[in-house]
Amino acid sequence: MKREKSEFPEPQDAQARRKIRPVICYPTDSLEPPDLESYRAARAGWRKVDEVIVPPRDARCFHVPAGSFFRIVSVEGPQVGDLNLWAADDIDERFFSGKTRALHGTHLSTGDRLWSSLPYLRPMATITQDTLDWYGFDEWGGSVHDVIGTRCDPYTHRLLSGHDYHYCCHSNLTRALAHRLGRPLAAVEPAVHDVLNVFMCTGFTRDTGQYFMKASPVRPGDFLEFFAEIDLLGGLSACPGGDCSTEHSSDLATCHPLLVEIFRPQAPPKGWRSPPRNAYAGGHGEAPPATAAADPSS
Ligand SMILES: [Zn+2]
């Protein structure tokens, strides 16, 4: 947060320094763009193979095989969802919200990818359709589906209010993952991670740089569609903030369920291959181990 008045005087060339043009930190021109046409074509004749209702102020896990699609659908009323993704066979590999933000920006839409944590760093899913892409950025700099928030959690709530609330997205996702894997809450809690805030409308205030939220523009029937690049275990929480127009971390907001639908195409998208894990070998600058000297007796 910026102070109202600086302790330090501006240098004479302050304006000139402010006028320096920004450069994009991570230009993505070197990445092969997703072939959205072939993803779209793969929808023809697809079959819905599963669906999961996520109750309000709760979360559910779901499995999406590599090469299938899933949709998060608004039903009944405006509702925000907090999405976690793990590699289905290894929950150490999980969605990396921060690097996804660095690569694609603060808010995601069609054609953006959800990248996995280090050392895996590969696309876990690609967004293939977004019925809210008409929203763009509003006059406050707000937009939909952010990767800037973390997830509402009982620790921050306790810190700021002094009270306990047990149905924050972090707790909902922890319970859902524990039930899914048949493991204790404490064993799986560290695997719960920063989310994609599905349908949430957020930004940063221009004057103080604070994270803000406002009523989500989502309406029943809206959906966000993903293609699973690898075998995925998903977790989705229907946030206790409802449409996040006023507050979260309480039972005050009106909440609605969310629907997850899984679709299997007849054939994978043309030319598609499940991405391998990142090619960096993990040397980190250490000298490679000495190779065994050749045995002189042989
Ligand atoms: Zn939440």
TrEMBL record:
Residues 266-298 are annotated as: Disordered. Residues 53-233 form the DUF1989 domain. Residues 286-298 have a biased composition (Low complexity). It comes from the Bacteria. This is DUF1989 domain-containing protein. The lineage of its organism: Bacteria, Pseudomonadati, Pseudomonadota, Alphaproteobacteria, Hyphomicrobiales.
